[in-house]
Amino acid sequence: MPAETVLLLPGTASDEVFVRSVFTEPLSQVGAVLDAPRVRTLGERLTALENAPAGHPIVVGGVSLGAHVAARWAVANPDRCAGLILALPAWTGAPEEAPAALAARASAEIVRTQGLTTALAGTTGWLHDELKRAWRGYGDQLVPHLEEAAESLAPTLDELKSLDVPTGIVGCADDPVHPIAVARAWAEAIPRAVLVTTTLDAYPRALGRAVQAWQRAR
């Protein structure tokens, strides 16, 4: 029997390298294979889902913005979605003043007016290394993408309630950009969701715990 393929999308201004580093091993441990497409814009994220094999329902998901896009696609394509693996949902419905949206807008303005080096100056450790690589990989698309991400819609709670598929969610108890309250609200709304939590000290590999949550939901 062929291994199950799981398509996962990166967060705002993140990339497929980060997705692979987090999810390849947890998925292999449950006999699944990761598909982490190279996408830069919102449109490319949606296209990756639309172009996924249509012969049978598939498991999809992602990190932050990637989780939003995957969940909205699942709402619109219930016959094509077999499950969801969602890490760090950042808001529900319209972004409004959500911390992640504010951060994306602020980053876009700094990159536009002061340059990439200045925008990265306030980051350290693994986050600095990840953003330095990923943001440079966006090139001229970085600022427009940060802006479009900050205005993008996540699914509403009513839409999440319609997702009757096994769903694993990982939220962070002390991440101010991705409030744990959002992850909890998503888990309460999705009928077959299992929520696991982590902390910033355990980032980034702990995000792969969403895979174990998905398995429990099954």
From TrEMBL:
One of the Pfam families matching this protein, by short name: Hydrolase_4
Show the SUPFAM superfamilies listed in the entry. alpha/beta-Hydrolases
- What range(s) does the Serine aminopeptidase S33 domain occupy? 48-193
Do you know which InterPro entries this protein is assigned to? AB_hydrolase_fold (IPR029058), Hydrolase_4 (IPR022742)
UniProt keyword terms in alphabetical order = Hydrolase
Work out whether the entry's keyword set contains Hydrolase: yes
Taxonomically, which superkingdom? Bacteria
Any one Gene Ontology molecular-function term assigned to this protein's record: hydrolase activity
Q: What name does this protein carry?
A: Alpha/beta hydrolase family protein
Q: Which organism is it from?
A: Lentzea waywayandensis
